[in-house]
Amino acid sequence: MKPSIPQGTRDFSAAVLRKRNFILQTIRSVFETYGFEPLETPAMENTETLMGKYGEEGDKLIFKILNNGLNNPDKREAVMQDFNAVLEGRTNKGITERALRYDLTIPFARYVAMNQGQLTFPFKRYQMQPVWRADRPQRGRYREFWQCDADVAGSTALLHEVELSLIYTNVFNKLKVPVEIHINNRKILGALAAVCGGEDMMMDITIAIDKLDKIGMEKVKDELIGKGLSMEQVDTVESFISIAGSNEEKLKALEDMFSSIPLGQEGINELRTIIDSFNAIQGIASAGTQLLVDLSLARGLNYYTGTIFEVKALDVQMGSIGGGGRYDDLTGLFGVKGIAGVGISFGVDRIYDVMEELTAFPESIQKGTTALFFNTGMDEQQHVLGVAENLRSKGVSCEIYHELAKFDKQFKYAERKNIPFVVIIGSKEMESGTALVKELSSGTQTEMKLDELLKGLGY
């Protein structure tokens, strides 16, 4: 059988991992400068923890894990009935009690609900782990991928939305990826639903609007009609999405549109407060990054209640590379009321693809082994072990060739691994306390004392 991996998953070589780690370390460093602390949760959650939290579309993409013991012949008839229930889209504990996590936000809410008595609020955590979605694999979209989230639980202050915007700008400035941060507010979308006839239309409208970039306005309108909206209501949604101009011009148009709807006015005021605060310190932190009011931004997940974000890379054809928002009712899903929340997420895999296209990775991150010590014999090997260990203690990455072999073979090993230096210590060098150091790029070979090795290797 030819070996393979599941569709939508990938292996990562050392060269790729060094680049990915560069992204992760950059994000982590910025998270920690804003006072966020690390958290990890299990790869799988109870199915009931996840189901019903992401809307109808999201629930379809949750990877469920089959229970053990389903091949018991005595229970075959009951198992088939349970399978039929699952095929109809229902959750059934007889078949599956656990599922792979779909994102990091719901597990975070579950963690807060379980540990609220031990946490200091506001609780600021970051989490960097893989998630899984039964999506159709394509460029920038995988079935297994990493998310990097920063969330705050226990505060309604808009200060957090401003700081999360600044985290985005700081990270992407450090990664040298020019971006725009698109921003909207679910309260404004709630006001749109009210104008269209009622709050019960909220999910249908937001799910359709969220597809605008992918399917275009005409198909969005067709979907809304299919959900039961009248042509007049569809025209209202279209006129809402079509509002253009500067941020302030859009906000003023929204104020006119929702003048009699307090929820909409509240969302508009929140957007204005965040944008004004962000712009006031733009010269310090954001270096030209813009917050743009985007009325087509809906983020069709059930749990968002206020500000919503989406980050898009400039000059690269790619979907969003970050997103998030406020979800003041999230822990209420687990029976814990009154804990507000807001958070953002970075899409590491898409950021990687963007940086590859922009050639934004610094060459220095591909640095691996600095020096290869040739194997010249068993007696010399013991001596070389001590020399190599001394260098490692000073932060120098080095290897010892694993067996006695012709120099040509050992040179080829160094060349294939892009090791810049080879160090040769034979019996003569052992006696004199020296080493021969050859730089492969230039071919220069130098004999030096062992206490000069660190400098000779560029440290």
Low-confidence stretches: none
* Overall pLDDT score: 89
Number of helices: 18
Q: What portion of residues belong to β-strands?
A: 15-25%
CATH class wording of the largest domain: Alpha Beta
Widest beta sheet: strand line-up: 1-5-6-11-10-9-7-8
* CATH topology term of the largest domain: BirA Bifunctional Protein, domain 2
Structural class: alpha+beta
Q: How many discrete domains?
A: 2
Main sheet overview: 8 strands, mixed
* Number of distinct beta strands: 16
Keywords:
elongated, BirA Bifunctional Protein, domain 2, 459 residues, five-stranded mixed sheet, single chain, 18 helices, 18% strand, alpha+beta, Rossmann fold
Any overview of this molecule?
The chain is α+β, with helices and mostly antiparallel strands and 459 residues long. The protein folds into two domains: 14-42 and 102-358, BirA Bifunctional Protein, domain 2, CATH 3.30.930.10; 367-456, Anticodon-binding domain (Rossmann fold). It has 18 helices and 16 strands. α6 packs across α12 (262-280). The chain starts with 13 loop residues before the first helix and ends with a helix.
Brief overview:
This protein is an alpha+beta fold. The protein has helices spanning 14-33, 47-50, 55-59, 76-87, 105-115, 159-175, 186-195, 202-209, 212-226, 231-241, 247-257, 262-280, 282-285, 348-358, 378-393, 407-416, 427-432, 453-456, and strands at 37-38, 44-46, 64-65, 98-100, 123-132, 144-153, 179-185, 290-293, 307-313, 322-326, 341-347, 371-373, 398-400, 421-424, 434-439, 445-449.
Chain-wise SSE layout:
Layout: H1 14-33, E1 37-38, E2 44-46, H2 47-50, H3 55-59, E3 64-65, H4 76-87, E4 98-100, H5 105-115, E5 123-132, E6 144-153, H6 159-175, E7 179-185, H7 186-195, H8 202-209, H9 212-226, H10 231-241, H11 247-257, H12 262-280, H13 282-285, E8 290-293, E9 307-313, E10 322-326, E11 341-347, H14 348-358, E12 371-373, H15 378-393, E13 398-400, H16 407-416, E14 421-424, H17 427-432, E15 434-439, E16 445-449, H18 453-456
Parallel strand pairs: 1-5, 7-8, 12-13, 12-14
Antiparallel strand pairs: 2-4, 3-4, 5-6, 6-11, 7-9, 9-10, 10-11, 14-15, 15-16
Helix pairs in contact: 1-6, 1-14, 6-12, 7-12, 8-9, 9-10, 11-12
